[in-house]
Amino acid sequence: MRIATWNVNSVRQRLDHLLTWLKETSPDIACLQEIKCLDDAFPREPIEALGYNVVTHGQKTFNGVALLSRLPFDEVQPGLAGDPDDVHARFLEGIVSVKGGSLRVACLYLPNGNPPDTDKYPYKLKWMSRLLEYSKKHLQAEEQFILAGDFNVIPQPRDVHNPAAWASDALFLPTTRERFQALLDLGLTDALRAVTDEPGQYTFWDYQAGAWPKNNGIRIDHLLLSPQASDRLTAVGIDRHVRAWEKPSDHVPVWIDLDLDAA
Predict the structure, then answer these.
(1) Is the alpha carbon torsion for 209, 165, 62, 72 positive or negative?
(2) CA nearest 127: which of 178, 67, 187, 86?
(3) What radius of gyration, in Å, describes the C-alpha atoms of the chain?
(4) What angle do CA 7, 31, 157 make, to 5 degrees?
(5) Per-residue pLDDT of the chain (263 residues; tens, 9 = 90+)
(6) Could you give the CA distance from residue 137 to residue 183 in angstroms, rounded to a whole number?
(7) What DSSP letter does each residue of 114-146 carry, written as one string?
(8) Looking at the DSSP assignment, which residues form a beta bridge with residue 233?
(9) d(CA 260, CA 145)
């Protein structure tokens, strides 16, 4: 079973790219971020024509997340618990039935947090605390679940081409990285780092200053797996070639393969 995440940076602008990639990579479940449209404006028909069930949690102009699944959804739930006043469309979870039980997949678009000296950074940290509580709950239940999305977190220096250039950025501040590490300390597994320690495994290249041709990238798109899911991990991939397409998103897809027959 292949599960993927991609910040598409406007699904309507990148629809052709999305359809090409879905045909090419054939994920069973795809988590999309920054769809940047309301639910009724999401271009579901051509995606459904490829065999996907589609659920969205949209927002006009900003944010927005979507789940695409070849399997029918048993349950879907938008929004991350813990702050009833948070109206940003940043979180959407779905449950599907798989061999031996169920699989919970949470698609998330974690706040950027910049500039750090504004209220945007405390909002990011509070959001991460809410995500920590969510994760604790489902880990305690010993569920097979996955957090997938744009975390806006550079976990380690090896995940950024030029660490010094990002030292004061909200994505790389020590407190940000500590909150991300707290998720791993709960027992979640960073899928990519479970299969490789190699530096340079980037998922985002800025549009400015020739970042893509210079390979001046960062890794901020992650899949974190519960122990019950990580036991079934067989492969991880970054579809970096997508960044070279015409008028691309500044992010590229990341995917994992799970062997659901594994003990």
Answers:
(1) positive
(2) 86
(3) 17
(4) 55
(5) 999 999 999 999 999 999 999 999 999 999 999 999 999 999 999 999 999 999 999 999 999 999 999 999 999 999 999 999 999 999 999 999 998 799 999 999 999 999 999 999 999 999 999 999 999 999 999 999 999 999 999 999 999 999 999 999 999 999 999 999 999 999 999 999 999 999 999 999 999 989 999 999 999 999 999 999 999 999 999 999 999 999 999 999 999 999 987 54
(6) 12
(7) -STTSTHHHHHHHHHHHHHHHHHHHHHTT--EE
(8) 258
(9) 13
CA–CA separation, 89 and 35 (whole Å): 10
Q: What is the pTM of this model?
A: 0.97
CB 53 within 8 A of CB 69: yes
Residues forming beta bridges with residue 224, ordered by sequence position: 147, 190
| Cα separation, 71 vs 52, whole angstroms | 8
Question: What is the rounded CA–CA span in Å between residue 96 and residue 69?
Answer: 9
Q: What is the largest CA-CA distance in the chain?
A: 49
Those residues with Cβ within 8 angstroms of residue 164's Cβ, 6 or more apart along the chain or in another chain: none
**Residues 228 and 245: beta-carbon distance below 8 Å:** no
| Residue listed under structure tokens 């940290």 | 125
Closest Cα to residue 219, out of 246, 185, 244, 196? Answer: 196
Q: Catalogue all structural domains in the chain, each as residue range(s) with its CATH number.
A: 2-258 (3.60.10.10)
Q: For residues 245 and 242, what is the distance between their CA atoms, to the nearest angstrom?
A: 5
Q: Dig out the tokens for 192 from the structure.
A: 């990519």
Cα–Cα distance measured from residue 242 to residue 136, given in angstroms and rounded to the nearest whole number: 34
The owner of tokens 């940047």 is 36
Q: In the sheet where 101-109 sits, what is the strand order? A: 73-78, 91-98, 101-109, 145-150, 221-225, 189-190
